[in-house]
Amino acid sequence: MRSFTYTSHQQRVIFGADSLHMLKSEIEALGLSKALLLCTPEQRDQAERLAGMLGPQVAGIFDRAVMHVPIETAREARQVAEKLGAGCAVAIGGGSTTGLGKAIALVSGLPIIAIPTTYAGSEMTSIYGITEAGIKKTGKDPRVLPRTVIYDPTLSISLPLASTVTSGINAIAHAAEGLYAQDGIPSWT
Ligand SMILES: NC(=O)c1ccc[n+]([C@@H]2O[C@H](COP(=O)([O-])OP(=O)(O)OC[C@H]3O[C@@H](n4cnc5c(N)ncnc54)[C@H](O)[C@@H]3O)[C@@H](O)[C@H]2O)c1
């Protein structure tokens, strides 16, 4: 008999084409207030689409997410969230944008809703990474786990082919790692 210790994570997952439209009702269902929308400069149009859907539920847009979450960007985003009185953050994008949401949640506990547009999978982990003085440090904290993940497959259509291939291989690597991870979901097969 194999012994194990497993910590389950409580998360809501919404999946489906055009499920993006569930965001407004999801914010209400979770009892959250004004959302700070997070994105990269390249995905500003998608964040603006969300802003149009949410109307007065939006606190603002922070569009400066970059890869590996530089500490300066994290600090700036935390300040913007505080200044705007955001009650939650909605990260629309890949692992870099989700990672920025996690960096905010790490210090403020701000609830995060993730809307992934790549296959990085960061939205499903409580692992965060922040880069300071050129060194990326990672850690684990339950506060950074997004409350809800909205998977809308139509959002991945705009991902360039080269990124689709590398992101897809990243997803396959994560699946393979799940076979031997020490903290994986117990499986007997
Ligand atoms: N914490 C975790 O568990 C975890 C897991 C996986 C990856 N990561 C981190 O995530 C980062 C990489 O994330 P990534 O590979 O998703 O890339 P990314 O988030 O950096 O995105 C790369 C580029 O693609 C653009 N993009 C993303 N989706 C798009 C779409 N649908 N259409 C058009 N453009 C789109 C982005 O705006 C960005 O310019 C790394 O920092 C990595 O360490 C963290």
Report what the structure shows.
The chain is of the alpha/beta class. It has a single domain, classed as Rossmann fold (3-Layer(aba) Sandwich), CATH 3.40.50.1970. Helix content is 33%, strand content 21%. The strands form two sheets. A six-stranded parallel beta sheet has the order 1-8-5-4-2-3, with helices on both faces. A two-stranded antiparallel ribbon has the order 6-7. α3 crosses α4. The longest helix has 17 residues. The chain is globular and about 55 Å long. The site of nicotinamide-adenine-dinucleotide has 26 residues, from α4, β6 and α5.
Fraction of residues in β-strands: 15-25%
Shape: globular
CATH class: Alpha Beta
Q: What proportion of the residues is helical, as a percent range?
A: 25-40%
The end-to-end span amounts to: 13 Å
Poorly predicted regions: none
- Report the structural category: alpha/beta
Order of helices and strands: EHEHEHEHEEEEH
- Biggest sheet strand line-up: 1-8-5-4-2-3
Here the CATH topology equals Rossmann fold
Rg estimate, integer Å: 16 Å
Which features would summarize this protein structure in a list?
5 helices; Rossmann fold; 33% helix; single chain; globular; six-stranded parallel sheet
Summed up:
This protein has 189 residues and is an alpha/beta fold.
What's the structural blueprint in terms of helices and strands?
Layout: E1 12-15, H1 23-29, E2 35-38, H2 44-54, E3 58-62, H3 71-84, E4 88-93, H4 95-108, E5 112-116, E6 127-132, E7 135-140, E8 148-151, H5 161-177
Parallel strand pairs: 1-8, 2-3, 2-4, 4-5, 5-8
Antiparallel strand pairs: 6-7
Helix pairs in contact: 3-4
Nicotinamide-adenine-dinucleotide (NAD) binds next to helix 4, strand 6 and helix 5.
